[in-house]
Write a structure and sequence with these properties.
Pfam families: Trans_reg_C. InterPro entries: OmpR/PhoB-type_DNA-bd, Sig_transdc_resp-reg_C-effctor, WH-like_DNA-bd_sf. It comes from Dyadobacter chenhuakuii. The protein is α+β, with helices and mostly antiparallel strands. The protein folds into two domains: 197 residues, no CATH class; 104 residues, Winged helix-like DNA-binding domain superfamily/Winged helix DNA-binding domain (Arc Repressor Mutant, subunit A, Orthogonal Bundle). The chain contains seven helices and twelve strands. It has a five-stranded antiparallel sheet with strand order 1-2-5-3-4, covered by helices on one side. A four-stranded antiparallel sheet has the order 6-7-8-9, with no helix packed on it. A three-stranded antiparallel sheet has the order 10-12-11. A hairpin with a 2-residue loop joins strand 1 and strand 2. Helix 1 packs antiparallel against helix 4, helix 5 crosses helix 6 and helix 5 packs across helix 7. The chain starts with a helix and ends with a strand. The N terminus is likely disordered.
Length: 306
């Protein structure tokens, strides 16, 4: 039961690693969205202040310093309006609005409309590019009748996609590297799911003479007959082959192999597994029914074909 608990714990740890990597990658790439949201919030604050200042100055120009300035309403990320219930001079609007936006460092283009509060009909309006024209803005020289009006400013959206691509290009290779690492961890976990609890190698017991494909393994005499050759195995070679023979067609974790075959040496060297697997592969090279394959990031599996 203990090996099963260890395997289960390792799978849970690997799962946590995968979740962490996925969340980290998502955080990296969603950073652009957070940054964009913050920028949009700051822009909305600036537009709000600029429009309130403009409304305040328009009333002052008309000799009104007592009327309350109503709140600015935002109907979408780029559109703002303020209700002007008292008379104002349309001639003063273009210069005052331009000045207020410049004070807030708002450089985006915009359209201005003056709408009737009652029916929403556009009475006057202009585009910011008209400020540079010799004849002035559209509807210049026309006076508003006294009444309630909505002063509406619609800003031209910026192309944030280009800025994101150029400003955060480094996230692409960084995110790809993390994704690759996450795949490696997931791959290792996936293979580990196929592992079943195996008894410690000290208790490895198989038949004295075991058939492996077309080869014959005699564990008691530490010999392997494969093809026309008879190989005398060392103690470690025999122990490793016995471990594979007891668990054919199963993925064996590298750490499990080390613990099973080399634990009694006290000092475990990871490279030993690769060296001894290479030796066994050479001995079994003439037998196409037996193959020891490496499972990347996990360990080895001895495939035995009938």
């Amino acid at each position: 039961m203990q090996p099963f608990r260890i395997a289960l714990f390792q799978n849970c740890m690997d799962f946590r690693k995968i979740v962490f990597l996925v969340l980290f990658i998502e955080l990296c790439f969603s950073g652009n969205g957070v940054f964009a949201n913050n920028e949009q919030f700051r822009f909305a604050e600036k537009a709000n202040l600029a429009l309130r200042r403009t409304a305040h100055l328009l009333l002052l120009k008309n000799g009104d310093s007592l009327s309350t300035i109503p709140p600015v309403k935002q109907t979408d990320p780029n559109t703002f309006s303020i209700r002007m219930e008292h008379f104002f001079d349309y001639e003063e609007l273009p210069a005052l609005l331009k000045q207020s936006l410049e004070m807030q460092n708002v450089s985006r283009g915009y359209n201005v409309m003056v709408l009737n509060c009652a029916d929403g009909e556009v009475k006057l309006g202009y585009n910011f590019l008209e400020l540079n024209q010799k004849d002035g803005v559209a509807c210049g020289g026309r006076r508003l009748e006294k009444g309630c009006y909505q002063l509406k400013v619609s800003f031209i959206p910026e192309n944030n996609e280009t800025k994101t691509a150029s400003g955060n290009w480094w996230l692409l290779p960084f995110g790809s590297a993390l994704a690759g690492l996450g795949f490696m961890v997931w791959n290792k976990t996936r293979h580990k799911k196929d592992l079943r609890p195996i008894s410690p190698a000290a208790n490895i017991t198989i038949d004295t003479r075991t058939r492996l494909g077309a080869s014959l393994f005699d564990i008691s005499n530490q010999t392997l007959i494969s093809g026309d050759a008879t190989h005398q195995l060392t103690f470690r070679e025999a122990k490793l082959l016995a471990l594979f023979a007891k668990n054919p067609n199963q993925v064996l974790d590298r750490d499990f192999i080390l613990k099973s075959v080399w634990e009694d040496e006290g000092v475990i060297v990871g490279r030993s597994v690769d060296v001894f697997v290479s030796r066994l592969r050479k001995m079994l090279a003439s037998d196409p029914a037996v193959k020891i394959t490496a499972v990347h990031g996990v360990g080895y599996k001895m495939e035995v074909f009938s």
